[in-house]
Amino acid sequence: MGNAMRRYWIPACLGTEIAEPDSPPVRVRLMGEDLVAFRDSEGKIGLVDEFCPHRRVSLFFGRNEECGLRCVYHGWKFDVEGNCLDQLNEPPEHQFKQHIHITAYPTVELGGIVWAYLGPPEKMPAPPKFAWTRCRKRAAMCRK
Q: Which of helix, strand or coil describes residue 23?
């Protein structure tokens, strides 16, 4: 059943939880996976594995800065797509950041909710199109 549910867009968190660029990340648990959601400097939303691949430190405690989430333990920085952008603890000639990647899921913000798709990329459906997700104003009025 978990594989079937991963083929749909799933609500991950409220957009207000990560409203500002470079704001602190939030923990999200979806389909038994521990993840963190964050909004980078450009406003793009990332949903990535909670634990840094280097020493398994929680990225929930990471610094959201300059278009990436930086691990506080050794300073590895990841973008919204899970790519390693920087490795502070490695000299430039020994860096292997191009080989490091963490799990990252596509997201879309609709109706004040951050939706995530956890299934295979080639089977990703169109984002949800409920009436209340089409207009942010309308969604805000419904909550009042």
A: coil
